[in-house]
Amino acid sequence: MSQFWEQQLADIREQLLLMSGLTERNLALAMRALVERDDKLCDTVEAEDEQIDQLEIHIDEMVVTYISTHGPIARDCRLMLTASKISNNLERIADQATKIARRARELNTEPLLKPLIDIPLMADIAHEMLRDSITAYVDGNNELAVEIIARDRSVDAINKQLARELTSYMIESPQTITRALKLMTISGAIERVADHATNIAEEVFYLNRGRDIRHDPALKQPVPGGAGE
Q1: Count of structural domains, the chain
Q2: If you ran DSSP here, which 8-state letter would residue 228 be given?
Q3: In a domain, 94, yes or no
Q4: For residues 101 and 99, what is the distance between their CA atoms, to the nearest angstrom?
Q5: 148-180 residue pLDDT tens
Q6: Exposure of 183 by Cβ count < 10 A (0-12 exposed, 13-18 middle, 19+ buried)?
Q7: Cβ count near 68 (within 10 Å)
Q8: In angstroms, rounded to a whole number, what is the distance separating the alpha carbons of residues 143 and 121?
Q9: Which of 16, 44, 64, 115 lies most in the core, judged by the most C-beta atoms within 10 Å?
Q10: CA 71, 73, 75 angle in degrees (round to 5)?
Q11: What CA–CA distance (Å, rounded) separates 181 from 67?
Q12: Is 228 part of any domain?
């Protein structure tokens, strides 16, 4: 492969890493906005979402240009397809961060319904899944990708447990319904973040092995000792 095409691939990779860094930052800021009850952080998350949207568009344009001008072989086709799908999942994660920030701003105007324990725990797991999925992409680490997929069950389990708890709050005290529903929305958004991180991990495996594992139930078992057991 010529130096020109190598540079094109490197540029796509660089833009993906920039996008992943911004997405991680926005997710972390959204959670801080919730926990610290800080409206200014909510504003920052919403403002920076546009930059992430534009990066997704830019990466897709780079992928199309590469495919249309290079005539890539199978490995390069997988690389382009994976890059586009990873950027799409990162954009979706950023959208979930914006959703968290918006609900946090609304909750900041009301008394705290309950101590925030489960939601930050979920967010920590999902954030680590996101970070590790990008590390797996950079390092070509299939073992890490598979391990990330298994963690998704832990996030699902916490989300379901929290939904049951918040439903009990609403039944016992109708005045808590609005706050409980907003917390459910945030919990659901974090669960979706974990889903998108899982998608990235699955794309990494496909890139390196040429095998689609998105619907392989054997790879989605609970982590030993995790919340899914």
Answers
A1: 1
A2: T
A3: yes
A4: 5
A5: 998 999 999 999 999 999 999 999 999 999 999
A6: buried
A7: 9
A8: 24
A9: 16
A10: 135
A11: 45
A12: no
* 106 assigned to some structural domain: yes
Residue 227 counted as domain residue: no
Quick one: tokens of 141?
């680490």
| Residue pair 12/62 in contact by the 8 Å Cβ criterion | yes
| Six-digit token string for 32 | 């801080």
71: left (phi over 0), alpha (psi -120 to 50) or beta: left
Following CA atoms 160, 28, 47, 107 in sequence, which dihedral angle do they give, to the nearest 10 degrees? 50
String of DSSP letters for 24-93 = HHHHHHHHHHHHTT-HHHHHHHHHHHHHHHHHHHHHHHHHHHHHHHH---HHHHHHHHHHHHHHHHHHHH
Task: Tell the residue number behind the tokens 């701003």, with chain if given.
Answer: 105
List, in order, residues 6 or more apart from 191 with CB less than 8 Å away.
Answer: 122, 126, 155, 156, 159
DSSP single-letter state for residue 176: G
Which among 224, 228, 66, 52 has a CA at the least distance from the CA of 147?
Answer: 224
Asked if the model's pLDDT at residue 227 lies above 90, the reply is no
Residue 166 structural domain: 3-219
What does the pLDDT read at residue 66? 85
Average pLDDT, the chain: 89
Q: What is the CATH number of the domain that holds 31?
A: 1.20.58.220
Asked whether residue 182 carries a pLDDT value surpassing 90, the answer given is yes
